[in-house]
Amino acid sequence: MDSETVPMDTDVxxxxxxxxxxxxxxxxxxxxxxxxxxxxYMEALELYSEAIRLLPSCAAYYGNRSATYxxxxxxxxxLADAQQSTSIDKEFTKGYxxxxxxxxxxxxxxxxxxxxxxxxxxxxxxxxxxxxxxxxEKVKKSEDEANRHHSAGDFRxxxxxxxxxxxxxxxxxxxxxxxAECLAYTSQxxxxxxxxxxxxxxxKRNADxxxxxxxxxxxxxxxxxxxxxFKHVLKMNPDHEKARETFxxxxxxxxxxxxxxxxxxxxxFQHAHRLYSEALSIDPLNKLTNAKLYNNRATVNTKLGNxxxxxxxxxxxxxxxxxxxxxxxxxxxxxxxxxxxxxxLRDYEAVLKLDPTPQNKQAxxxxxxxxxxxxxxxxxxxxxxxxxVSDDQLKKAYRKRAMIHHPDxxxxxxxxxxxxxxxxxxxxxxxxxxxxxxxxxxxxxxxADLEEGxxxxxxxxxxxxxxxxxxxxxxxxxxxxxxFGGGFDDCGGRxxxxxxxxxxxxxxxxx
Length: 511
Description:
Blueprint (H helix, E strand, L loop, with lengths): L13 H24 L3 H14 L4 H13 L3 H14 L4 H13 L3 H14 L4 H25 L3 H14 L4 H13 L3 H14 L4 H13 L3 H14 L4 H25 L3 H12 L6 H17 L3 H14 L4 H13 L3 H14 L3 H18 L3 H5 L7 H15 L9 H21 L2 H9 L17 H8 L15 E4 L2 E4 L1 E3 L7 E3 L1
Helix pairs in contact: 1-2, 2-3, 3-4, 3-5, 4-5, 5-6, 5-7, 6-7, 7-8, 8-9, 9-10, 9-11, 10-11, 11-12, 11-13, 12-13, 13-14, 14-15, 15-16, 15-17, 16-17, 17-18, 18-19, 21-22, 22-24
C-alpha cells in the first residue's frame, strides 16, 4: 500500500508514542534476556540491537548487547557498546566492569585496571570488581616482564611470561603475535607461522603478523622472500621499527657474505676470513645463515692451513644446524688431515646417514681403512721420515735408527731399557724391510696389507739382526752390498765397531 494513503491517527500524542517505544524496547530486551539465558546469542543480539534502535538512550541495552558480544568473543564490538553505556550513564558500574573485561581480553591490562577502579569507586565492596582488578594487575606484571626480557634478548623467558598473559587473554592478537615473534627468535618457526596466519585470517592488514612471517622466512635462510615481506610491512607502517631494523640486518648480512665469497674466489683468503667474521657478528640469531658462514670460514681456514680452526668453525656450524652435511664433511676432512681418524669416521658416518649416496658410502669405507691404517705400526714415523721419502733417504734413516737402537749399544742399561730398545730395533728393521720393497711399500701405503693375505704371514717373526747384518756388509742374498763399510757417524764423530760371533744372526758389534 502506498504510504501516502495510510490513515494516520492524529489523536495519539507524542508522549504516548514514546511510551510505546519504551514498552516495545523493554519487551525486546526481556525477550533478548531469555534467549541469552538459553545461550542463543545471535538471536539475542538481534533483539538487543532492535531495542537500541527504538531507544538509543538506554545504557542497559548497550550493556546487554556488550555482554552478548563478549560471549561471542567479539571483544572490540563489546568494548564499543560498554563504552557507549558508560557515556550515557556515568554511574553504570556494569558498563565499566564490562569495559575492563573487554580491554583485558584485548590485551590492554593497564586500561582494564583503570576501568575496574572506576567501578570500584561506585561499588567499593564489590568482590567481583576487586578480583578482576587484581587479575588485570597480574597480567600487566607478566606483560612488563615479557617486554623486559624481550628487550634484553632473552626470548625464552619472554615467551614464558607472555604465555602467562595468554592464559587470561587467549584471544589477544597482540599477545599472540608477541608469542609468535619469540617463537621465531627461538627457531620455532612452524608454530610462529601458524599463529601469524591465524591472525591474518581475521585481519589481512595486520603489520605485526606480516612481520612475524617475514622474520620466519629470514631465519629460515629465505632472505630474498623475507625482504619482500619486510618492505610490505614498512609500506603499511613506515614506523615499524622492528621491521626496519631486521630488514637492514638482512641487507648487511647478504652483502658481507657475497663480499666474502668474492674474496675467496679471488684467492684472497685472509680478506675472505675477515669478511666472513664480520658477517657473523651482524645477527647471532640467524642460525642457518650463520651456519653457512661458519662453514665458509672453515673452508678458508683449510686453505690457510689452520686445521684446528677449521674444526672449531665446523663445530659452530653443526651446533647451529645439526643436519648440515657440508659442515660434517668439511670437519671429517680436517680430522683426517689431523690424523684423528676415529673422529673422521664418525663424521663420515653422519654424512652418510644424512645423505645416503654411493659417494658418501665410499667415503665411510675409506675412513674405516684409514682408521685401520692408523692403528697399525707407522713405519714412516718409526724411521722418522715422511711418506714421500726417496730410497737414499730411506737408507740413511734406517742406518741412523738401527745404530741408535741396536741392543748391543744398550748392554749396560737396565733390563727394562734393553727390552724396550730391542723392541724398537726390531720395529726399525721391520719398517725398513717393508718400505725398501716397492711392492710391499705400495701395499702398505694403500692399506692392502690390512686385507686378507696382508704383507705375508709370519712377517712379524723376522730377525732384525739379519737385516742389520746384510745392510752393514754382512752379506746379503744375491750379493747385495749397501756400501757403508765398517763404521758409522755418531754425533758428528767417527765410531768404529768390530765384528765378532754373537747369538743374534752370528755377529756382535763392539761399539
